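Let us work through a complete example step by step.
Step 1: write down the sequence.
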Amino acid sequence: MPRAGAPTDPSTAAEQREAERLHWDAFWAGHGAKDALFDRTLWIIRRIFASHHARLLARRCRQQAAVSNPSLQFLEIGCGSATTSGYVGRHLEGYRGFAIDLSPEALAVARRINPGLHCIVADALALPFAEGEFALAFSSGVIEHFDRSAAHAMVHEHCRVVKKGGTVAVTVPWKASPLNLLRILCGRRWPFGHESPFSFAELRSFLAKLALDGVEIRSVFATTLTGIGTRNHLPKAGNTPAEEGIPAACKLEWT
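Step 2: predict the structure and record it as tokens.
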């Protein structure tokens, strides 16, 4: 995997996304069907985090809806099991939920546990939606799997599909957390693939460069950071370092 901050050329970006897809296909094919202690524990942890994130996202979304016309749609990017989307849907009654992931195996799990969610196989670097379709776009544990150039392009896409006055949020591992020390100690045995955690200051700077207003950074259980802001204007496409590596089209599969 490219190191954090390394430049991204088209071939490297495509290879990186394909490697991630293969990794997560294998992960969800096993984890989604197993009932071992590790898998049960991970589902419990995932639900605790997802519930916390969903309350934060829904509260911010409702606050923004009070001062602007809501689109009544939200999107989770790189959704995995889409557990967070399930909780967000409970808090935002009347909203239509959408979720995208490169991994068909992940979406099979997402569809099973979230039957009302619209799940689509798509690339986070080229979302198959028009500008301003959603009141909320978010990702949890996604952009740290890519170098910073590709991560910047991904969050640019988050911003693009959110309406003016809407909410954009990303959750990433915190570099200063004990969990990151465990990741380092595990080395190649870490089950969640390549990761480049963020510091508090780096995440704030990262989001500020994407033209988000009112950015807040919150620590979640001293392990992850959630950055959340309001999209009032869109950064120019020319400011996206990985623009030349973004595919022109992506495959869609609707539920």
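Step 3: interpret the result. The first helix runs from residue 10 to 31.
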